[in-house]
Amino acid sequence: xxxxxxxxxxxxxxxxxxxxxxxxxxxxxxxxxxxxxxxxxxxxxxxxxxxxxxxxxxx
Length: 59
What we know:
single chain, mainly alpha, 2 helices, 0% strand
């Protein structure tokens, strides 16, 4: 239960910090670049998964 509490506190602090950082132009640009890179990464993982799935299915 203690670990769950610390996780919740960490999430709240992270959301609060992101909101404060997003208020500045430089911070907004930083968060936008992080968002772009995370989308690129997730798209690469999806593409790799789909390619491997097709390979295993013999398509």
